[in-house]
Amino acid sequence: MGATVSRTDFEWSYTDEPHATRRKEILGKYPEMKKLMGSDPNLKYSVLFLVIVQFISIYLVKDVSWTSLLILAYCFGGTINHSLNLAIHEIAHNLAYGHSKPLANRALGMFANLPIGFPVSITFKKYHLEHHRYQGDDEMDVDIPCRLEAKIFVNSFLKIVWVILQPFFYGIRPLFIRPKSLTVLEMVNILVQVVFDGLVYYFLGVKPLVYMVAGSIMATGMHPLAGHFISEHYMFVKGYETYSYYGPLNYLTFNVGYHNEHHDFPSIPGSRLPEVRKIAPEYYDNLPCHTSWIKVIWDFIVDPEIGPYSRIRRKQRSVNGVSDVNKSD
């Protein structure tokens, strides 16, 4: 079963998350950082390219064997879909068309969502922005594993299971930890996705649909790109809650590996995040970072000091004794 996780609780912090303070310091020292903020005009073209590639591959797999289909779904289709998920992450921050065109961003997000198979774009935005604003918050940050996950997945074998099932936990956890009513845009996202999936099934059969869905599931589980889920905020070094990754897989993931930089400046698109580190190296070069997402997954599984409990949490914030929950809406 492997080594048992040594932690029996989360790492509790009684200070604010570090990004707001660092952002203020950096902007005071390097006001030119503001020039990096704003939309990325090339993002929509990257999304268009990836979606077209997937449309072509969806058509081509309709006659392959099931074995070939699953291999292609893991190695190729799932990789593209993971990249599209991270394009959706960029779009959630309005980095495609800017904050002045929210509906254009939402529409592009739904378009990027099509090959993924599941309607995720609008719901992701709803919860992800709270992850930024309330990082580590005991009730608001649904990026953190729930206590039941931490209590169940307590040895190497069970951590393998947890890694494989990551897409299900990320999808289901918010519904239990912080349920919210469906919005109109979420219903539109669901309708558009169901219609697209239905058309794929009707005209091409079940194999292309399985290719889409299975690729999305496998590529967010035990897959090299999925290492970013663990690398970003799991506490590999005591006291540090956000980690950047500076390896080559950033080219496939819109630089999501530059995660300290992203949390410090969520209004700067991924394509410009390397410039953040170049402008203010003294703020990033000495922070713990990762160089391999595959190694991150391996260490998470085999190291008894790392597991679902390896996250920094904070008690829910309040202002004048009143819960801060409503401020997120």
Automatic annotation (TrEMBL):
Residues that span the membrane, as ranges: 43-61, 67-87, 107-124, 152-172
GO cellular component: membrane
Domain Sphingolipid delta4-desaturase N-terminal: 5-43
Entry keyword annotation includes Transmembrane helix: yes
Keywords: Lipid metabolism, Membrane, Oxidoreductase, Transmembrane, Transmembrane helix
A GO molecular-function descriptor: sphingolipid delta-4 desaturase activity
Provenance organism: Patella caerulea (Rayed Mediterranean limpet)
Subcellular locations according to the entry: Membrane
Family the entry assigns: Belongs to the fatty acid desaturase type 1 family. DEGS subfamily.
Taxonomy, superkingdom: Eukaryota
Leading EC class: oxidoreductase
GO biological process: ceramide biosynthetic process
PANTHER family: SPHINGOLIPID DELTA 4 DESATURASE/C-4 HYDROXYLASE PROTEIN DES2 (PTHR12879), SPHINGOLIPID DELTA(4)-DESATURASE DES1 (PTHR12879:SF8)
Taxonomic lineage: Eukaryota, Metazoa, Spiralia, Lophotrochozoa, Mollusca
Topology of the protein relative to the lipid bilayer: Multi-pass membrane protein
Protein name: sphingolipid 4-desaturase
EC number(s) stated in the UniProt entry for this protein: 1.14.19.17
InterPro entries referenced in this protein's UniProt entry, alphabetically: DES1/DES2 (IPR011388), FA_desaturase_dom (IPR005804), Sphingolipid_d4-desaturase_N (IPR013866)
